[in-house]
Design brief:
With 498 residues, this protein is of the alpha/beta class. The protein has 3 domains: 25-142, Rossmann fold; 159-270, Nitrogenase molybdenum iron protein domain (Rossmann fold), CATH 3.40.50.1980; 310-465, Rossmann fold (3-Layer(aba) Sandwich), CATH 3.40.50. The chain contains 21 helices and 13 strands. A 5-stranded parallel sheet has the order 11-10-9-12-13, with helices on both faces. A 4-stranded parallel sheet has the order 2-1-3-4, with helices on both faces. It has a 4-stranded parallel sheet with strand order 6-5-7-8, sandwiched between helices. Helix 11 (208-221) links the parallel strand 5 (193-200) and strand 6 (225-230). The longest helix has 26 residues, at 295-320. Mean pLDDT is 82; it is low at 1-14.
Length: 498
């Protein structure tokens, strides 16, 4: 359970959405991120040396470089005549010298073009290799495409604020390809343990390891065991993963495959913010308890936890009362969750909401007038449902923005330093602070309350005096070349067909 995106969480650099919209780094990055969680595993990248060099520095694991990454080092003659001999040699050397439990063979564009039978080679060599050979099958383009994005937005626009969103299937930028390989090539049929679950470990956000360990402890009090954290498990644990009676997952495509092969149902946590707060925690664990047939004892633990934690939450709410908070966002789809998480779950009274839209939003996501009205209805519905009396301002002019900021004490807008130039304390966004136990939830509320002590403490960083683009942060306002590059990428994304 490695801490991915640490620099993004702590420094506000390379935000997640920006990576996926502009700086796509290839599906190998997602595959390596998944394999990097598995102890005693080595990856062989079946491609030229340049591939191996690039992905050692992949953006997905900046805080923990992929140490056990090898490369077949294909040259021009291998592309012409085949690289089977080099692959066999490197697999034998790794098995002999490193003694791993598993060796993952990761294809590249080059190996896809020459079409070597990697899976056949692995099957032939397996009797002579002590490590388990796992071949990642190339699924061509694996990033979220325009069809997925538009379908997800259209479906979300039709949801009310209380409905959980699951979303369309997609391959998950190479990550799901690894998970599918584990399901197909490593897992084995097991007798089910009716009170055991598997928990997918990937992309739970800042504090992921602590978050999952606390979740495990809370489940144990309900009589529910964590059979395996996937993929952060050893070979034997992965083999025995079908022993669990339920999978708790962030990416559902591999879980669907596992359900089909081994009959393991799953609970999909697609949008973490929809499971936020006391109500979200209760619904999550009650759903798990109901599926495993232990709902009464689950509810008893939840009642005790809520009773224990409410005084701490009430203390923070008293501190929030009477203060003036402003939310600044670019997202139509996330805003209802933002309103609920701050206004309802954390008890932070919002006085202003600034919605600064991407000027190409409707074009990029094929949003017609009907869908646009549905998105606005979701926002207004969330404000009514959660008692939010904030003034909503859409696409403010510069003077209007300054007036709203001047009327606020605190700005809630993630780590965007663009708004630090106004001299108001900026509270980091909640999207990477979603938690799944009561102590962690109390800590998040207390952390937000601690920001109240920073009122009147302007930042003197030179970074905060730079003019960032209001929509495409961290691009600079005068960065015309990068904006042009982004527009080119956007056009290619809209034109591409699956």
């Amino acid at each position: 359970m490695n801490e991915f995106y640490t620099d993004m969480m702590l420094l506000g650099m390379k935000p997640f959405a920006f990576l996926h919209r502009v700086g796509v780094n290839g599906k190998q990055s997602g595959s390596l991120a998944a394999i990097h969680e598995i102890p005693n595993a080595v990856t062989v990248m079946y491609g030229p040396r340049g591939c191996g060099f690039h992905y050692r520095n992949t953006v997905r694991v900046r805080s923990g470089p992929v140490a056990n990454l090898e490369c077949a080092g294909l040259a021009d003659q291998d592309v012409i005549f085949g690289g089977e001999k080099k692959l066999r040699t490197v697999l034998q050397e790794i098995d002999r010298e490193k003694h791993p439990e598993m060796i993952f063979i990761l294809p590249t564009v080059v190996s896809d073009v020459i079409n070597d039978d990697i899976y056949g080679i692995a099957q032939e060599m397996q009797p002579d290799i002590r490590a388990k050979l796992v071949v990642i099958r190339s699924q061509v383009f694996s990033h979220m495409d325009k069809s997925n994005s538009r379908k997800n937005l259209k479906e979300l626009a039709q949801h009310n604020c209380r409905q959980k969103f699951s979303g369309a299937d997609y391959r998950g930028c190479g990550y799901v390809e690894v998970m599918n390989a584990l399901v197909e090539q490593v897992m084995e049929p097991q007798e089910k343990d009716p009170l055991a679950i598997n928990v997918e470990t990937f992309i739970w956000g800042y504090g992921g390891t602590k978050k999952l360990e606390r979740m495990k402890a809370l489940l144990a009090r309900m009589g529910i065991r964590v059979n395996a954290f996937l993929p952060a498990a050893g070979l034997d644990q992965i083999r025995q993963a079908p022993k669990a009676a339920l999978n708790l997952v962030r990416r559902k495509k591999w879980a669907q495959d596992m359900e089909e092969r081994f009959g393991t149902p799953f609970l999909h946590i697609a949008v973490m913010s929809q499971w936020h707060g006391l109500e979200g925690l209760r619904e999550l664990y009650e759903t798990i308890g109901k599926k495993l047939g232990v709902l009464p004892q689950t509810q008893a633990i939840l009642d005790a936890e809520e009773k224990r934690i409410r005084p701490k939450l009430a203390e923070a709410r008293v501190r929030f009362a009477g203060r003036r908070f402003c939310v600044i966002t670019n997202s139509f789809s996330n805003l209802p969750d933002v309103i609920r998480c701050y206004q309802h779950d954390l008890g932070i009274p919002l006085c202003h909401i600034l919605l600064i839209r991407n000027p190409n939003f409707r074009r990029d996501f094929a949003v017609d007038d009907t869908m646009m009205e549905q998105l606005y209805q979701r926002i207004r519905g969330a404000m009514d449902l959660y008692g939010c009396n904030a003034e909503l301002t859409v696409d403010p002019e510069a003077d209007e923005l300054e007036k709203v900021v001047a009327d606020s004490e605190f700005l809630i807008c993630g780590g965007n330093p663009r708004y630090a130039c106004y001299g108001k304390p900026i509270i980091p966004g909640f999207l990477d602070r979603n938690v799944f136990d009561y102590d962690s939830y109390a800590e998040v509320v207390a952390d937000h309350a601690a920001w109240l002590d920073k009122a009147g403490m302007p930042s003197h960083l030179l970074l905060n005096r730079m003019e960032y683009d209001p929509v495409f942060y961290p691009l600079r306002c005068d960065d015309e070349n990068t904006l042009a590059s982004k527009e080119l990428y956007s056009r290619m994304w809209r034109l591409r067909k699956r």
